[in-house]
Amino acid sequence: MVRHITLVAGSNRADSQSRRIADLCSAALLAGGHTTTEIIDLHAHDLPLWDPDKRTQSARWEALWTPVSEALSRANGFVFVVPEWGGMAPPHVKNLLLLADQWELAHKPALLVGISGSVGGAYPISDLRGSGYKNNRILWIPDHVVLRQVGGFHWDDAGENSTVAMQQTRLRYGLSMLEAYADALNPIRETVFDKGMTNGM
What we know:
The chain contains 5 helices and 5 strands, in the order E-H-E-H-E-H-E-H-E-H. It is an alpha/beta fold. The chain has a single domain (3-188), classed as Rossmann fold, CATH 3.40.50. A 5-stranded parallel β-sheet has the order 2-1-3-4-5, with helices on both faces. The model has no long low-confidence stretch (mean pLDDT 91).
């Protein structure tokens, strides 16, 4: 079975580290031969903040949101590469989770990858685990990855850099666990569930 993973590059900056890491994760997933991927780059998709007009499926929102919604809907699972901004996940990542109100993410596993140019990166993970799942029903898998000093991360030989070697091992493990969860949760998504239950508890 070929699974499909959508990766979200969570920065709205051009040529961001988020996009670079999303590309590296995509390449690692594709190398296994049983996964296809696509990337949603939040710099390329300049999504406005949610407003009540989104619920009416107006022409404005349909043009802006439909390509992103379709990319999310195609996926069996997700990788969210999220930079730390001021000790939080960027607001446009949370906005994406709020906009996905048509079950695009529901009951699909997601790996959180927090990144930082210095020694941070953990706060976006706790931020999103705390509330990022509520109404969209995304399933953050128990494993996550924090890439600190992200500018030095690569898939090449880590040499004597034990930190990069550890990060490589953790990220490959997290991606493999995501693939396992994506396969295991397929039967749940095929089960009939009540889409009228729009609000999480």
